[in-house]
Specification:
Layout (H helix, E strand, L loop, with lengths): L12 E8 L2 E8 L4 H8 L18 E4 L2 E4 L12 E3 L12 H8 L9 H16 L20 H7 L10 H12 L1
Parallel strand pairs: 1-5
Antiparallel strand pairs: 1-2, 3-4, 3-5
Length: 180
């Protein structure tokens, strides 16, 4: 940490340790740095996109300890000590993640700008449904087990991710296939 002793100012940087895509990363960052900016500008992981920079489009979605977050809204200092997975970290070597494969098989993208966020969000949506987390459209309240990912379930769970090209039908098909 940069010392500001005797200046009357609070520290403006913080030393962090994150595990990003399975690799330990130690960085000192300005306290105002978003996780998205740390990923893109410092670590050169450009899969997560800066779309709206207001948490409205989902293009910056990454997984934080397995749960999806809008990385443009999360300060990097809040992610200290966590496991961050970006779209670059989903594949197992040369083998793509099943949802990445399904996106290819179903043409779940057009321009591709939103695709990394869509895929990270889809991975989390599948995990949430498998763990029995209900959504606003899950019938009969809280289920006793995994939630079946109908088209309506996928639409609801992916509603925070916008595709300006309108590839939603194919995205829904890809998520449903990967969930099976």
């Amino acid at each position: 940490m940069r010392s500001t002793e005797g200046t009357g100012c609070a520290d403006t940087t913080t030393a962090l340790t994150l595990h990003i895509n399975g690799e330990r990363q130690e960085r000192t960052v300005d306290n105002r740095t978003s996780l998205l900016d740390l990923l893109r500008e410092d670590l050169r992981l450009t899969g997560a996109k800066k779309g709206c920079d207001h948490g409205q489009c989902g293009a910056c979605t990454v997984l934080l300890d397995g749960r999806r977050v809008n990385s443009c809204l999360l300060l990097a200092v809040a992610a200290d000590g966590t496991e961050v997975t970006t779209v670059e970290g989903l594949a197992d070597g040369e083998a793509l993640h099943p949802l990445q494969e399904a996106f290819l098989a179903h043409d779940g993208f057009q321009c591709g700008f939103c695709t990394p966020g869509q895929i990270c969000s889809g991975v989390a949506a599948i995990a949430e449904a498998a763990e029995g987390w209900p959504s606003a459209v899950t019938p009969d309240g809280v289920p006793d087990g995994p939630v079946e990912l109908s088209g309506g379930e996928v639409r609801e769970r992916m509603s925070g991710n916008i595709c300006r090209c309108g590839a939603y039908v194919n995205i829904i098909d890809a998520v449903r296939e990967a969930a099976r």
